């Protein structure tokens, strides 16, 4: 690893609150999207002359559409409870990375244009005009928020900075200022079907190669089927699972689970991406366009169940938004023809959608799959709760199922497990530092610094319990940690998926 061009924080093994350093992260800025990338998504390619009017107009629309946004703008009492809860503030010391300050970037403008006092006595209420300088600050600091929602857990009013960030990014996009990383990827999904731009034939090739590897390793012909009409399960998984390390090990784990349980399943070349970056930019139309590929694939293949692989934000979109986006899931609307068709097609005996961890957990409970726990004895494992699973969704039919189920799977497949410090897991989990559209090399400094709180908690269990493996169920967390672990002196192979552990332990020879 080349020497970093920034100072890597020193780990202490616990969360330390830094002294404020005004402007410490002001130079950290992700590359903006060019006109071609913006226009491909239907956004303006650059700032128009009347950008200010457009931005205020869009803000008014969002305030009308999302009542929560209006409440968040009005409700903050500046109590300060959230100030030290953001990993980017803890890692960078920049006061504008305090959640309340991030919110205030929008609140000042809201007051100026949408409140009586702000219109007539702006100075008295801290209202500000939406100037180019303010817009630049929005871009800078709304792309230094991973939309992890940790701050909202500690706010007495439940103010969710992530929603404010999403609104900020949506307004920026609608005036022609987008982020290259996120918007380029959205374009790839629309054109090709997945974030990596992996075309169907390349995907098929990769899967065939993996099947050969599994058979060579295990002696069992475990299949990775694609586009199989009439399969029971359609697996929607992040495209990183197809060839990135360690992600692919989890894909092999899912395949082994289906094989061992005798469940027919398929992947889809049309919907070869679980991730949905439309959520990151707060744009409902983009989010729906990405999600509709999944509905189309499910209808075409005639599957009975839709299962989502290890991807944090994809699970949040599936669990919390598919009902309105594509008409599937709890509370799904009945006014959409294709949504109704799919609801009739899907098996009502199963929750829709299901997480792969729910599937594996249920099979373990039923005794339908068996594990050789000793196969993981070389590992002492901890679990990193991913933000969007922890604070944006749940699993199973019990409160806190999203915390319990992955841990129960780990304990079923391995003998040695230690949780990290209580204030850094479950609802209070720290973001990996690369979520919410920040997993780009131009933000490496922010990613490394933002990972510090998680790395401190990890160091504690490494030093005191000999932990050598951090399991997670998110493709972004895996990609982020493989990059940042070495900055902190850890080996990149110390991170992997829960189904990587399942893959190691599952008995393929067990009689079902
Ligand atoms: S949502 Fe997460 S990243 Fe954004 S301000 Fe809150 S704690 Fe920080
Ligand atoms: S905790 Fe809530 S009310 Fe208090 S400063 Fe933060 S956002 Fe405002």
From TrEMBL:
<feature type="domain" description="4Fe-4S ferredoxin-type">
    <location>
        <begin position="67"/>
        <end position="96"/>
    </location>
</feature>
<keyword id="KW-0479">Metal-binding</keyword>
<protein>
    <submittedName>
        <fullName>Sulfite reduction-associated complex DsrMKJOP protein DsrK</fullName>
    </submittedName>
</protein>
<keyword id="KW-0408">Iron</keyword>
<dbReference type="Pfam" id="PF02754">
    <property type="entry name" value="CCG"/>
</dbReference>
<dbReference type="GO" id="GO:0046872">
    <property type="term" value="F:metal ion binding"/>
</dbReference>
<dbReference type="InterPro" id="IPR017900">
    <property type="entry name" value="4Fe4S_Fe_S_CS"/>
</dbReference>
<dbReference type="Pfam" id="PF13183">
    <property type="entry name" value="Fer4_8"/>
</dbReference>
<dbReference type="InterPro" id="IPR004017">
    <property type="entry name" value="Cys_rich_dom"/>
</dbReference>
<keyword id="KW-0004">4Fe-4S</keyword>
<keyword id="KW-0411">Iron-sulfur</keyword>
<keyword id="KW-0813">Transport</keyword>
<dbReference type="InterPro" id="IPR017896">
    <property type="entry name" value="4Fe4S_Fe-S-bd"/>
</dbReference>
<dbReference type="GO" id="GO:0051539">
    <property type="term" value="F:4 iron, 4 sulfur cluster binding"/>
</dbReference>
<keyword id="KW-0249">Electron transport</keyword>
<dbReference type="InterPro" id="IPR009051">
    <property type="entry name" value="Helical_ferredxn"/>
</dbReference>
<dbReference type="GO" id="GO:0016491">
    <property type="term" value="F:oxidoreductase activity"/>
</dbReference>
